[in-house]
Amino acid sequence: MKRTGYLIDLDGTMYRGTQIIEGAKIWIDWLLEHDVPFLFLTNNSGRTPVQAAQHMLNIGYQGIEPRHFYTSAMAASDTMIRRFPEKKRALMIGADGLQEALENNGYQLVDHDADLVFVGLDKQGNWQKYSQALREVLKGAILVGTNNDRILLSEEGANCGNGSVVALMEYASSREAVKIGKPHEAIVTGALRQLGMSREEVVIVGDNMETDILCGVNAGIKTILVTTGVHTRQQAMAYPFAADHIIEDLRELIDEGGEAYRAFRMDPAGRTDSLRLP
Ligand SMILES: [Mg+2]
């Protein structure tokens, strides 16, 4: 039987802030126990895989390791080093996750004469830093945004997401940034390479139509929307594109007799039509 791998969102899918989602933990325990390949695919560029794994262990997950994460920072670094292997001087706006991802690919972090300007979430970002980065872009450095999320939610409410800062840099420089994170394809390409699987072999699981599900649509990968986060079933139905499957709880993917499980394993032609709920 063909094996399915999973590319899984974090916030709203695995947890809400520091609150674990129970059904998600039970499903992840099952994936680990049955040695099912998966990667957490996150637009969050701030955490390193070690920090991201620690966060999940802190809120109650077990058996999660750094190798289970593929972040927009890693995707940005991997994409650009493959595209421009000779361009090694990088100016970075970002935090630990982006710094580690760049250093792992041999980038030299610089303030001047940069080949590339990487923009990831930096909660200490300020006018001086943005202006320094802008000057490098105006001199010809390639602008790269790790992700284009408009808003970052926290307990206080809405905060400027990294995409808002990328948009600021695009507006100031009149250049378009290279797009990496969900819903763009680059992050999926990198994740599949890390997982050693093809598009046909994986399913994207997430709570957000505009990032997770659209990412699957853009990349030609099957999708499952779980309604534990941003979008309800009703909201999902109003979009011009559709998730292949909508479920309320990730436990639905465990039961070997369950509808979702059957749908993904018994469709020999790999058609998506048969996966849609009536
Ligand atoms: Mg999410």
Can you characterise this structure?
Helix 3 (72-83) packs across helix 7 (186-195). Helices cover 36% and strands 19% of the residues. It has two domains: 5-43 and 183-275, HAD superfamily/HAD-like (Rossmann fold), CATH 3.40.50.1000; 85-179, 3-Layer(aba) Sandwich (Rossmann fold), CATH 3.40.50.1000. It is an alpha/beta fold and 278 residues long. It has helices at 22-33, 49-58, 72-83, 96-104, 127-138, 162-173, 186-195, 209-219, 233-237, 259-265; strands at residues 5-8, 15-16, 19-20, 38-42, 69-71, 89-93, 108-109, 116-119, 142-145, 151-154, 157-160, 178-179, 202-206, 222-226, 245-247. The structure holds magnesium ion. Magnesium ion is lined by residues 9, 11-13, 206-208, 229.
**Could you name the CATH homologous superfamily of the largest domain?**
HAD superfamily/HAD-like
Number of domains: 2
What's the arrangement of strands in the largest beta sheet?
A: 5-4-1-13-14-15
- How many individual helices? 10
Detail the poorly predicted runs.
268-278
Distance between the termini: 26 Å
| Tally of DSSP β-strands | 15
CATH topology of the largest domain: Rossmann fold
List the topology elements.
Layout: E1 5-8, E2 15-16, E3 19-20, H1 22-33, E4 38-42, H2 49-58, E5 69-71, H3 72-83, E6 89-93, H4 96-104, E7 108-109, E8 116-119, H5 127-138, E9 142-145, E10 151-154, E11 157-160, H6 162-173, E12 178-179, H7 186-195, E13 202-206, H8 209-219, E14 222-226, H9 233-237, E15 245-247, H10 259-265
Parallel strand pairs: 1-4, 1-13, 4-5, 6-7, 6-8, 8-9, 9-12, 13-14, 14-15
Antiparallel strand pairs: 2-3, 10-11
Helix pairs in contact: 3-4, 3-7
Bound molecules: magnesium ion (MG).
